[in-house]
Amino acid sequence: MGQRSxxxxxxxxxxSFKRLSIEALSAxxxxxxxxxxxxxxxxxxxxxxDWQYQWNLGARFAYVKxxxxxxxxxxxxxxxxxxxxxxxxxxxxxxxxxxxxxSGADQARYFVQNGGGWSADGYxxxxxxxxxxxxxxxxxINGFYFGNTCYNMSPAQLTSWVRDFGSTVRSMTGRLPVxxxxxxxxxxxxxxxxxxxxxxxxVASYPPSPTNNAGPVPTASWSNYSIWQYSxxxxxxxxxxxxxGDLAALKRFAGNFTVSTSGAIGSAxxxxxxxxxxxxxxxxxxxxxxxxxxxxxxxxxxxxTAAQGVKxxxxxxxxxxxxxxAGGTSxxxxxxxxxxxxxxxxxxQVFQTRTAYWTAANGVQTIFTxxxxxxxxxxAGGTxxxxxxxxxxxxxxxxxxxxxFQRRTAYWTAEQWVKTIYTxxxxxSVWRAQGGTSSTWGxxxxxxxxxxxxxxxxxxxxxxxxxxxxxxxxxx
Length: 476
Description:
- The protein has 476 residues and is an alpha+beta fold.
- The protein has three domains: 6-253, Alpha-Beta Barrel (TIM Barrel), CATH 3.20.20; 260-368, no CATH class; 371-476, no CATH class.
- The chain has helices spanning 6-9, 22-26, 51-56, 77-86, 104-113, 155-173, 183-190, 247-253, 264-271, 318-326, 372-380, 426-434, and strands at residues 37-42, 59-68, 72-73, 90-96, 128-130, 140-141, 144-145, 178-181, 201-204, 227-231, 239-243, 287-288, 293-296, 300-305, 309-314, 341-342, 347-350, 354-359, 363-368, 395-397, 400-404, 408-413, 417-422, 449-452, 455-459, 464-468, 472-475.
- The strands form six sheets. The protein has an eight-stranded mixed β-barrel, surrounded by five helices. Strands 12-13-14-15 form a four-stranded antiparallel sheet, sandwiched between helices.
- Helix 5 (104-113) runs parallel beside helix 6.
- The longest helix is centred in the middle third of the chain and has 19 residues, at 155-173.
- Residues 6-27 have low confidence and may be disordered.
């Protein structure tokens, strides 16, 4: 990006840029990052393009320069924009900012009125603000002095200009623009301001050799990027880029999903880094029932309740994947009441009707907390009790239900309610060796009782087990 416009320089684009030949491409950079979705951005310098060839190279999205300042419109915009779409690409428009020329609102209106609009058709990318090095640094053209690399503007003035542009674009299109920039320039000229996390980030960084590392981003507003421009010398026409996700995520990015930044979920999303943070881009709009609101993102499902505030489920994680497989919010789990937490060797998360635990040994197991076994486990002290974590899910067979824990197996029947076997103990160990529930003992009908350190007993359906230090376990 950043090619000088013919209007300002009072010169026509060179004819050598009118068509980018295959020979020219082969002489330039050939490597691509090995992740994401490839795309390109072009301006009048690329002129008439062979879009099918770009598609064959792997490009699936394109951004086309529409305007610069409030004085220039790309004469090739329509043919480039439609050409990208004709071969199946998702495409969008970008505006090159000259912030000391006119206000952000003025240039936003000029941009939207001359190609920078957005529609929820599924193949239009959100508009882009190209905010970067001054291409006319130190020059006076037609009596106008363009200033230094920061346009002779202070960090506060440039920050305010971006907000003015962004809010105007949003009011006209319904979408905040993507911010295209270079990290070093943004930090130098704007002072790395906070508060832009709800704007998707397109970062420009050209590594000298093949890599998947885009380098640093402006950390006060972003923790990651949506698009990385990794080369201005091929392999694609114009500038070569990669979308930081898969094609499905790119299509969602082009979809009609918005985040209400004034709401609780939107505020939490911004605090977590916005589109480039922990949540990612929205994959649905926010919806509310009488008791909670929910919105899904690429990496999180966010829930708000008056009692708990905003809690999220980490969708790519083991607990999140199990929750989704069970039916998500519509499942017997319900929505999240807390965020996922991890201890030394396990992670857990509390939902409306289940608490889910993950361990490397047992994967994800849940406790149905309103149920009889779940209530007994909670009454015993939950994770901190001698039951420990669940090592299986609760299952019901005929007239009883059971669930294994690290140190107990719990049984429920209508007659006996919940009884447990302390599996590491002497009686529990022999019961397991005999075949457990399938043995001639059957299931427990009482909990283990010890009258002193020298005598313990437990009743089962068909046996009574007794333990003493001298005789060990005997049954009758």
